[in-house]
Write a structure and sequence with these properties.
By secondary structure, this protein is an all-alpha fold. It has one domain. Helices cover 73% and strands 0% of the residues. The longest helix is centred in the C-terminal third of the chain and has 35 residues. It is globular, with a radius of gyration of 18 Å.
């Protein structure tokens, strides 16, 4: 097995997408501008996923997004239930994605890309401390960070200037997760191919 070869039974991409389920649920449930129920549902889902992952023995560094999700949605759900009108109003979805962007950029700033822990679960231990593995995860984390930033900005602009453009808002929400997911798949495959070529040489 190549050092950059993923274990077939463990896909890092599925790990990323699973981590975003609470955010996707929040985005869907908050499409009409009412973030209250979306926040409560997202908090319940994020807490459940975190508990399930810890029970399976997943390391804390592979659960950066899950931890951030619980913290964010706990605060948002509590505020939404106690404050009228709900905090952030129609901008709730944009603020939520902004939190993801802040999380991703922060992990890059402290040199601990949030994808590292997830990716370690899908490659041999010999790869974990290699410079190439770190560089690949910096690029992938940066791609997610940029996507989150553009997603949050796009949602904020649409909500401000075209709040009734529901189709456009949904499209931005979907693209904000789909595009970096596709990039992750292709870039990871390219990195593995380069690693195999280097080993063969």
């Amino acid at each position: 097995m190549s050092l950059m070869e993923c274990r077939p039974e463990e896909s890092p991409v599925l790990g990323y997408l699973r981590s975003f389920l609470p955010w996707i649920a929040f985005a869907v449930l908050s499409t009409n501008g009412e973030a209250r129920y979306g926040a409560v549902a997202a908090f319940a889902l994020s807490a459940l996923l975190l508990a399930m992952d810890r029970r399976k023995g997943r390391a804390w560094d592979a659960l950066v997004l899950e931890i951030g999700s619980v913290v964010f949605f706990a605060g948002l759900a509590l505020a939404a239930l106690l404050i009228t009108p709900a905090p952030f109003g129609e901008y709730g979805p944009a603020v939520a994605v902004g939190w993801l962007a802040l999380t991703a950029w922060t992990t890059l700033a402290i040199r601990r890309p949030f994808t590292l822990g997830i990716a370690r679960e899908g490659v041999p231990a010999a790869v974990h401390s290699t410079p190439m593995f770190y560089r690949v995860n910096v690029v992938i984390t940066a791609a997610w960070a940029i996507a989150f930033t553009c997603n949050a900005a796009g949602l904020a602009l649409l909500i401000a200037f075209a709040p009734h453009a529901t189709v456009a808002i949904i499209a931005v929400k979907i693209c904000g997760f789909a595009i970096p997911a596709v990039f992750t798949v292709r870039y990871a495959a390219l990195a593995r191919a380069r690693a195999r070529a280097a080993q063969a040489a």
